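hiii, so i know i said id send this last week but things got crazy w the move. better late than never?? heres the sequnce for the chain we talked about at the cafe, plus the structure i predicted for it. fair warning i was half asleep when i ran it
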Amino acid sequence: MVVTPLRALSAQTEAILERTFVPLGKTVSSLYGTTGLSEVDQDILGERNIIVATPEKLDFALRNDPDLLNDVGLVVLDEGHMIGQNEREVRYEIQVQRLLRRPDAANRRIVCLSAILPDGDQMQDFVNWLTDDQPAGLIANSWRPTTLRYGEITWHDDHARLTVTVGSETPFVPRFLSAFTPPKNRRTSFPNDQQELTLASAWQLVDEGQTVLIFCPLRRSVNSLAKAIVKLNRQGALRNVFEGDAAQLNTALTIGEEWLGPTHPILACLKLGVAVHHGSLPTPYRKEVERLLREGVLKITVSSPTLAQGLNLSASALIIHSIWRSRALIEASEFRNIVGRAGRAFVDSVGLVLHPLYENKYWERRNWRKLVDDSAHRDMSSGLMQLVESLLTRMLHKFGDDDLEVLIDYVAGNAAWGFPELSDEEDDQAAAVAARKWREQLSSLDCALFSLLNDSAVDEVGIEEALDHALASSLWTRSVARRRELAQTALRAGLSSRARFLWDRTTATQRRSYFLAGVGLETGRKLDENADVLNQHLRDAERSILDSDDHGAIAAITQFAAIALTIEPFAPPNLSVGWEVTLAGWLEGKTVVEIASGDTFDALELIEDTLAYRLPWAMEAVRVRASAHESADDAWLLVDPDEGHAVAAVESGTLNRSAALLMRAGFSSRSGAIAAVLSESGQFTTLAELHQWLGSEDVRRHADDGDWPTPSIHDLWTGFTNRSVASGQKTWTHTVEYASVTWFDDHPSSSAAPYRAVSDEVLTFIDMPDGRRVGFLNEPLNPKRAGLLTVAGTSAENTVELNYRGPADLYG
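okay and structure toks below
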């Protein structure tokens, strides 16, 4: 089991592992998406040798069926430094603690991978936590394949100066680039602002032979840069940097046009040799872009904070477009993760990290240099402790002094923990932001406590003892022990007081349902308040899908969403007007271009974040909540194995059950999946039935039909069927056999003489090492074989030896 912190990294890791392990006869699959656990997911967990999962997906799976991990012998925590106080990080820490506290923990090895762990006590605590204080648990190497160099690109009237720090020296290029007036439809010089200086710097570096990665702290900045690139190219300010074969882009463009439309700025950027990458892009398109980047096809990448979560995108030079997010400086820990992408291993000896400064303000340079200096530090103390500490600190500020004894008395007697309003809050907006953060942190703490104490048999009297048991040898315990004595008391009092409050305000059944749903107290209460109507809408949606009543299914899902999307954390920060129309179009299988009334960026954001992630999460939370309330009317309808089709429909964007399963199995095209199952009457609801359908004569006869399932999708379909589980995993083996050959011009065969086999669609020719063609095999080989072939002459007159390492594909 490989656990990666975000969906984009899971998809990338899956592709990397497949290249290594599939030829060895091992099966690899992914378990990511929403927090739900479908029947397909259960099949994957039971059938595959290697599973790649996000923490959220794995956490949900283990909450609802802990036995799913029984046969797993190795858990790899990629980007294992993901410890902190935000919700994802706290869930991750608690999940690891639960793994370590399982009765079968000794039968399983946990390996944590990270390139930015700290030194000193925090490192020791982290390692001892994962290894249960066993010796020699740390394998560390300070070697880095490239040396980082930090620099600034500062604008001066009509030119930019590049300054790089090398030790105590600061060499510079006085005219790194110069302003000019683009030749088409523009009168002002280029560059003329921060955005244009960022792009001009990237293109200048490419002209000097570098590959470039542009980092933007905000996703909307990525989209803005994409539009600017297209506009500046039309004006003649930025050239096309794509130098490969246009056919290399076909698959990505086909998928992109299906989702985004043929004229979208992101696809225009791709044609210019620029990859645009962020979390709201459709997963199939994002995976194709990542493949192009791995193959070195694209010179420039513009990316969002997915970089900070360990996505394996690297370049010779990294340009930091901005160091600000929502008026706050990005955290040093995030910055450190980002700069690790500068310099390609075993390609570059030096990786450049550059920050353009168009206005060249002193305070901006100071903040940049502070980030560079602070990036050497990493806080790896318990995220759970940081979370409690943050909540208690705001309470302490409310009192107006630093008396921890007063705070301890307060939290011990009052665990309702209403939002402490501070008189020095800057304005109403700042207070609103702080209040939202408070609610999110409190919900995260409640989720952690329900997860730690998931045994509903624990009563309020035994809370402290249960907490001590659950947190034995935990990172929380080790981190708290590093604080001074009074602070330790306050932290422990805060945690136990909140736990007692939760147990006092809930029943055992409620706690069980909140735990299974992965939600906190306030979210759980709102689900309880709306349970009857949410259950009914979900039941109606399930029945309508089974009855092929698309209108009824869309109505029921929309009614469900109208309630669920107002409940945090399912509620998006901003739910756009007209979301109901987008949801209906999405479920009807329409393209994003058909759905979007304006900018497709906004429609994609709504689909990827709200419809394909938050809404399915809410649906699964309602489903599993019902499973805990066994006495609820018709609860069995929500947890029956043949249910869950509404979640699949919302996640995949189609009410066709078979098409949804085809996409969940890895087919990248939504329109192609729908067309395929409709044209060949695909009626399957399990992976086994899908495999049977793919292997049927009716489907196999379309292998050479270039118009099936649609002309633009055929290559995607062929690629999917060639690598899918239905075709069988292609294990590499070593074979040696002899083949008859017809020689040209009485060419004499020489024993052990080396030859090359060159196949076209008709014949397999035999060439000399210098390229001279001397014969052909009487039985041609497969021109698309994937393995490694060597050919040698033998003592027999018309025979050569074929030495092949690869799958069973030597012959066509």
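btw Confidence is low (pLDDT under 50) at residues 634-641, 725-729. thought thatd interest u
miss u guys!!
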